[in-house]
Design a protein that fits this description.
Keywords: Membrane, Transmembrane, Transmembrane helix. Its main location: membrane. InterPro entries: MAPEG-like_dom_sf, Membr-assoc_MAPEG. It is a single chain. The chain is elongated and about 55 Å long. The mean pLDDT is 90. The protein is built from five helices and no strands. With 130 residues, the protein is an all-alpha fold. The longest helix is centred in the middle third of the chain and has 29 residues. 76% of the residues lie in helices and 0% in strands. Helix 1 runs parallel beside helix 4, helix 3 packs parallel to helix 5 and helix 4 runs antiparallel to helix 5. It has one domain: Four Helix Bundle (Hemerythrin (Met), subunit A) (Up-down Bundle), CATH 1.20.120.
């Protein structure tokens, strides 16, 4: 299998799988002081402010992945319009990247609105096939 066989939507799945790791990196980036590599979750649980929000964004991003992956695979299997599927998948990834950014910034109302939009895009992907 070559990379050229992957659709834009499948590439979006790949990118979406990386977003939680980006949020985790943000939570840990530039932190000074000891990090307990034996108990990293304990260290993360003691964080506050934007680091805690980045860690929460990581968790939420992992939680949202199964629905997105499933919706894209189902849409492909049911013969959805590829251009519409690609457009919606890109929209989902962009919204989730914005979600992580506003989550880290601590803008709760915008975060909730962006989460809802991404969820609705995911529902649209699921029901895209005829």
């Amino acid at each position: 299998m070559t990379f050229s066989l992957l659709t834009v939507a499948y590439w979006c799945v790949f990118v979406a799988c990386g977003l939680p790791y980006l949020a985790a990196w943000a939570a840990k980036a530039g932190s000074f002081g000891p990090r307990d590599n034996e108990h990293p979750r304990d260290w993360a649980a003691k964080q506050s402010g934007w680091r805690a929000r980045a860690n929460s964004a990581q968790a939420n991003s992992f939680e949202g992945l199964p629905f997105f992956i499933g919706a894209v695979v189902i849409a492909h299997q049911l013969g959805a319009s590829q251009s519409r599927l690609d457009m919606l998948a890109v929209a989902y990834v962009v919204l989730r990247a914005i979600y992580i950014a506003v989550y880290i910034k601590g803008i709760g109302s915008v975060r909730s609105a962006v989460w809802a939009l991404a969820f609705l895009v995911n529902v649209a992907i699921l029901f895209l096939a005829r």
